[in-house]
Write the structure tokens for this entry.
Amino acid sequence: MLYMLFLLLVFTCKGSFLKTEPDVRSSIISALEKVTIFMENRYQDINLDAVLGFHVLQGYLKGALEKWPSKQELLAQHARVESMVKKLSSLLEKATHFLAQNDPTYFKEFAPILGPHFWIFPHSWNQTDTLMAYTSFGSTECFTEKMSDACFTYLLGTWKENGESCTVTSACRNTMTKPACSNYCLSHQLLYFIFADVKGCSDHVFLRTQHYKNIFCASMMKINLEIENNGFNVSSRDLFMENIMLCGMSGFSDFYKLRWLEKILTWQMPEEGCFGEPSQELEHSSGVEDEKKLLRRVKRREKMFADGCSSHHTAVAAGSLGGFLRYHCC
């Protein structure tokens, strides 16, 4: 009897997988094709955040193609992804050219993260541990974005001409390991350790990189679940997607929940292909003032377009959707 029940469960799960996974992939690919069209129309105007998000997307698409299932019925999807990769390669080259002209100082500081081989994507998956999450959060402004940017440039070696990379100041060490930070400060702490990973930095603080990633992403999962419980307020969607993008890049697969994917797909503007805040939604949002403060505080170079498209929203959406595709394709 138990054996028959086991077989029933196996075939039920297998049938469900064959039925849903191609649909999941198709939905993600369609959304990403629209995002790519937005990139095609706005590559001269988008900011560094958006270019970064599309670099992350491109990396995920390439990784997906390498492990794409060889089933006949999935060849059409494979071709669509391959087409996007080719188009993005050209668009990113053009966008980088305009970015260097439009914001040369900022571009110089962060040029290394826009390289074709900078990003490393997970080869194995972990799950967050709720016990490692902060029991409570402190100030949402643990540190300024100016401080965060400075610490990033010390790791990248762009803090001065011919600067040494992987430089860790005591201020940065204290800031980037400060406990109970939340929101964008928390995601910037995680990004700091991601950069250190990619650069191969060997300061003693990085001997505990995985430990910090475990704490940060467990806490970011806690934040995302709170955002979900609060009904995905407009002002929290950008942070929600950024947490998925960064913790997905850190190898935490429980951020790739199908119910979250379905929700993110509803936030895409169907005509523009971007993510942001349509004017009518802004007018009726109780969080408008909070969002304005948020933009001033953590996204100094945010680029909002007249149609409501946001460079930062679109960047983190592209990066998170690329992660969803990479996770569900293979």
In short: Confidence is low (pLDDT under 50) at residues 1-19, 280-300. Residues 24 and 258 are 8 Å apart (CA to CA).
